[in-house]
Amino acid sequence: MMTGFPLSDHDAQKVSDRLCQLIANRIQEAGGCVPFSDYMQWALYEPMLGYYAGGSSKLGKAGDFVTAPELGDLFGRTLARAIAPLLSQTDAQILELGAGTGRLAKTVLAELDALGVRVRQYGILELSGELQFRQRRLLGKDNRVQWLSALPETFSGIVIANEVLDAVPVKLACLKNGVWHERCVACQDGQFRFKDCLASSVFLSQVAESLPQDIVLSALPEGYVTEIHPHALGLIRSLATMMATGKSAAVLVDYGFPAHEYYLPERTEGTLVCHYRHQVHDNPFYLPGLQDITAHLNFTAVAEKAEASGLDVLCYAGQAGFLMASGIMELLPSMEKKDAVSARLVQEAMKLLSPAEMGELFKVMVLGHDVQPSETLLQADRSGRL
Ligand SMILES: C[S@@+](CC[C@H](N)C(=O)[O-])C[C@H]1O[C@@H](n2cnc3c(N)ncnc32)[C@H](O)[C@@H]1O
Questions:
Q1: Is 87 helix (H, G, I), strand (E, B) or coil?
Q2: Going from the N-terminus, what domains does the chain have, and what CATH number goes with each?
Q3: Which of 33, 88, 176, 365 is the most interior residue, by most CB within 10 Å?
Q4: Low-confidence ranges of the chain (pLDDT < 70)
Q5: DSSP 8
Q6: With a 6 A CB cut-off, is 69 part of the ligand 1 pocket?
Q7: What is the pLDDT of residues 278-300, one digit of tens each?
């Protein structure tokens, strides 16, 4: 199958059927059930068949969901202004993880050029063939842009990851009779279903790494289900290793909460959601390979893993607070302007900033190694809330 071309519904269904069969065989080979993270990994990233590996349009109106860089250029331009003072302390490189359509890269490079801030190289690490195809079409002529197949061993520059960690497979934990079980995936009569298994010691240590130290299990209701993020924390550790020898920072933007808000007793079903053609629902077994599966991030665990791996938390803020401190208002037209372009920009800013849209649910975390935080970061920082 060629990547980069939209699939017809018939072809899409065939791809999903092949993926289901493959996953069902693997579950059988594994003895009847697998961790949810294995299922999510295959559903999203199985070569040629997984959601991000296949040919369907994912981002934008014709796809399944819209991200901040896809709304317009405001997000990217403001982000460029925020990273400019950090970038100039480093070896002038940017590394973007999961770069979507490439629009964020294009906007960030254009804004930094306009500000006179040098970018020596813009690397992209993209797991999705379809998205890499779109990125090459948009950015292929800029010889600063290069596509990587793995994280470099060492790096001095700025890492950008917008809505990447939420797409990293999660494990599910379920509380039964006051004891954590691992919610796994089984297959019965050709249908995937959840199966709660006794937790291994490895799983229990991963739960302990995520949950707040002072959590009272008896305050959580029977059957409480939540996510833990060992793979995302593994990615943080890998970034820290890569950043350990140079001056560098990583800007992570995603939806999520601090641990004490994540593991609230009333959040009984966790945060797992699926996106299919702009419909949001909670069934990860619907059309495997054709829908996005995602979970919110536990920013406390990310900060703790980063610090334990040698990075500093330079800033943790709501997206609205971060963008405001970084000067988004300066990019908006004056109040008197009433033309269509101005109206569109104001609408875009509302989406990015409004607490009812992306302003509060999305957070920005900046991790650093051997770099001085800028005034912007110091002003926006709310890391005391972690
Ligand atoms: C929801 S999309 C976000 C795309 C883009 N950043 C945006 O904001 O429009 C998630 C992206 O993360 C990528 N991704 C997931 N895990 C990754 C990893 N370990 N390294 C690099 N990219 C990853 C996926 O391939 C996908 O491109």
A1: helix
A2: 9-61+170-228+275-294 (no CATH), 68-168+230-262+296-385 (3.40.50.12710)
A3: 365
A4: 1-8, 55-58, 60-62, 335
A5: P
A6: yes
A7: 888 999 999 999 999 999 999 99
